[in-house]
């Protein structure tokens, strides 16, 4: 008994074309149309199952209906000198209207009841004009976003940083001057207390407090000067770099 002709109409009928570059997943679409008055069950097979992902790879098409199939080629290193030997086959069989078990239908199918169509895979690289168009399309959103974002000139940013640094230095210098004035007053008070004749063998509480304050505050300006020098050196170094 002769083999049945394919009842489905395939679009494309003989070639699945995949257009590179192939650094990402490339998808080719296949349409299966059932022009008959019967339900048709189908399966999609390939000689390179690890290289492709097919969705859906099987199913049932009602009379007059069409199914769209996505054939996704996985990324690979494309060699233009190597011809593709990959092929696909769409295998079909008539399904009764009351048959809901598709697996048993294929399991019990006789070879003479099967119909099939074969498609070869064709790999194509885009032309230079198409590559330029794609690059321009991808670059346009980036350029537009760069135009939309306000930019601050480097010189203006440096001036702002310098102004902030100078203001901090002025505030620190003002605090150092105040502490120097207080230190001078404490020293003068300590000198006056020393010149006064002692009233007893022991130092009075007031004189003890004055001397203690004089000793402790004598070190404050020196410490603040060191801190100020470190602080100014850090910010000037950051500004220059």
Give an overview of the whole structure.
The chain has 241 residues and is an alpha+beta fold. The chain is 43% helix and 24% strand.
| Inertia-based shape | rod-shaped
Radius of gyration: 44 Å
Low-confidence parts lasting 5 or more residues at pLDDT below 50? Answer: none
Instruction: State which percent range the strand residues make up.
Output: 15-25%
Please give a handful of descriptors for the protein shown.
5 helices, alpha+beta, 241 residues, rod-shaped, 24% strand, four-stranded antiparallel beta sheet, five-stranded mixed beta sheet
Write the topology of this structure.
Elements: E1 9-11, E2 15-19, E3 26-33, E4 39-46, E5 52-55, E6 58-61, E7 66-73, E8 87-95, H1 102-107, E9 115-124, H2 128-148, H3 154-195, H4 205-218, H5 220-240
Helix pairs in contact: 3-4, 3-5
In short:
The protein has 241 residues and is α+β, with helices and mostly antiparallel strands.
